[in-house]
Amino acid sequence: MSNEDLYNKGMETRRSVLGNEHVDKAEAAKTGFDQDFQEFITNAAWGSVWGRPGLTKRERSLITIALMAALGHEEELALHLRATKNTGATTADVKEVLLHTAIYAGVPSANKAIKIAKEILK
């Protein structure tokens, strides 16, 4: 797959998960400083990883939510919680993932993630 094909696949996947509004806003804010980074994450995360056939978007969404909660990446957690409307992950799925996160990543991480999820998913 050419770099251009990978980028196009990444943008398609990114838009289907995060939504056109978010991607358009991010693209409009892109500068020469972060252009290479934006291309990198579009190719690597959205084209190569999210674009693989091994897991569904719902499954990838739930894994990402658990990881963002465990690592305390609140802004990315919120982004991916909002994206559940596009991935098929339900509020019940998120509840289970965050309960699981509490056991394996710690109650404080899950507690903060649950507060964020309650606000976003209400």
From TrEMBL:
InterPro entries assigned to the protein according to its UniProt record, in alphabetical order: 4CMD/NDH-1_regulator (IPR052512), AhpD-like (IPR029032), CMD-like (IPR003779), Decarb_PcaC (IPR012788)
One Pfam family this sequence matches: CMD
Residue ranges of domain Carboxymuconolactone decarboxylase-like in the record: 36-119
Q: Which GO terms describe its molecular function?
A: peroxiredoxin activity
- Please identify the protein, giving its name as recorded: 4-carboxymuconolactone decarboxylase
Q: Can you name the source organism? A: Chryseolinea serpens
